[in-house]
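Ticket #4471: structure export looks truncated?
Reporter: QA, pipeline team
Priority: medium

Steps to reproduce: submit the single chain below to the structure queue and open the exported record.
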Amino acid sequence: QSYCYAKKAERLYPNVLPSRTRNLKFSNTDKFVPSIIEYVNKKKLETFRIHESGDFYNTKYVTKWYDIARACPKTKFYAYTKRDDLFTDDLLKDKPKNLVLIFSYDGIKDNDFKPDQDVLNKFDKVAIVTLNKFNCPAQKDKDIKCMEQCKKCINKTTKVITFKKH
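Actual output as written to the record:
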């Protein structure tokens, strides 16, 4: 899409695409799971966002993240996904409790967009990108840092999060 921030970063910064390509390749190795577990435990991370861009690409990759989350129970993992097709009921029943899956909708063309009830039931949260209606505190106030002062994306109190297109 023309407004995709991930593609925009690849156009603006020449090192981004090669880095993402290396990360993808690494995720298919046997070293991936133990390396991420070691990193998370060494840093004693409270929260860990899976992907700064991109998405889950197959069931095996999802289960690798399940294994990582289970091995790091003190860390809250979260990920945005558009892969409603990938996250079947069978796959979701094994999801670790410390992993928050946020289904991501593009609501830019319709500011009154309402998420599908099945998706609301299936995922922990729903995120909608809009042009002007948003409830993300970090976008409303530059002094609020995402995942520092605000953890709305991973708390249990809010089911739908709206972000302003950036």
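Status: closed, not a bug. The export was complete when the record was re-opened. Leaving a note from the reviewer for reference: Strands lie at 47-50, 76-81, 99-106, 125-130, 160-164.
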